[in-house]
Amino acid sequence: IFIFTIPGFFLQKHLEKNNSSYVQPLNVSFSPAPQVQHEKTALFVPFWTIDKTIFDKENYSALIYSGVIANENGIDTTGQTYSKLTDFLLQSDQNKKKLLTIQMTNALVNTRVLQNISLQQKIIDQSLILAKENNFNGIVLDFEFSALPFASITESITNFITRFSQKTHKSNVSFAITLYGDVFYRPRPYNVALLAKQADEVMVMAYDFHKAKGDPGANFPLTATKDEDYDFTIMVDDFLKKVPKEKLTIIFGMYGYDWKTGERGQSIMPATSLSLNQIKQKFLMSCKFTTCKITRDSLSTETKITYTDNENTNHVVWFEDEESVKKKKIFIETKGIFSTGMWAYSYF
User: Fold this and answer.
1) List of residues 6+ apart from 33 with CB closer than 8 A
2) Nearby residues of 264 by Cβ (< 8 Å), 6 or more positions away
3) pTM of the model
4) Helix axes of 107-115 and 151-170: crossing angle, nearest 10 degrees
């Protein structure tokens, strides 16, 4: 927490000292919520997976390229995230809705962006040019920032996203944002209600509730165990208090973590991430470890694997799969939410 808070602390001091670095909440006309489309599912396609035609694309309402990176120089055109964009377009169904993700996940870069309105405008303008030139239907802004929710930081994030939203809508391009699934559970500098008014779609990253650097646990449990006080059902209700259900898209992470554990089951080092396909090959199809035990947890709906490796170290694996997603979809449909996303192509 201390490490993640440092950029936020200095950003708050900068914003309080230099009022020209941020503006008061903008006067804008908010976009209406889109019409509900039952069973609408989008597929995220990371740049590193584009090595063949995107599979089962007919099963998805939209393909989301994930994505190009925005940094302190604007849109990064030097790496594979940019160069693979052409391959994504060539291999995608031309009749399929396509969205472009603008990835902003570096805390130090995001701190500089929030301090510099000119840089914000540059990122917005370059993103729109890229989207329009390549016939994308919309933009997904993945702005991830881990810091304590100081009022000045929260306001700066709201203002940046408002600027992005205003200009995107003027260009007749749809605008979506991603938000952490635990945004109401852990301190996060996001005004969800205001951000939801700016976006056509709010994509909730309903995964990574138990972190690689924390102790073992479900990716995002449907129902909390006796040792926990938050779960998927509470998360959905929290979002519905701030976001119209027609704007909500729940994203499921088709992967898990493998933790090395001590005598009491606690993590002894950061976990290794495994895609669902890797888990199927390593454990489900044939587990080479003699102590391998595979059980589906009835509360979380996710699967837990325990095993001991060749060095006599105990492991715990938790992961999301098609069955746990199916049960979570049943729940959100009772809440009137029919839009989902899958992270990510090649993971399952």
Assistant:
1) 200, 244, 246, 247
2) none
3) 0.90
4) 80
What token pair was written down for 346?
A: 């090649």
Query: Under the phi-then-psi rule, with left for phi > 0, alpha for psi from -120 to 50, and beta for the rest, what region is 39?
Result: left
Length of the chain: 348
Question: Tokens 């709010």 label which residue?
Answer: 202
What digits encode the pLDDT tens for the residues 289-344? Answer: 989 999 999 999 999 999 999 999 999 999 999 999 999 999 999 999 999 999 99
Per-residue pLDDT reduced to its tens digit, 56-68 = 667 899 999 999 9
Beta bridge partners of 307: 315
Identify whether the C-beta of residue 19 lies closer than 8 Å to the C-beta of residue 12.
no
Q: How far is CA 64 from the centre of its chain?
A: 12
- CA 19 to each of CA 16, 23, 24, 38, 147: distance values in angstroms, whole numbers, following the listed order: 6, 7, 10, 45, 20
Distance of CA 34 to the CA centre of its chain: 21
Local structure of residue 267 (DSSP, 8 states): B
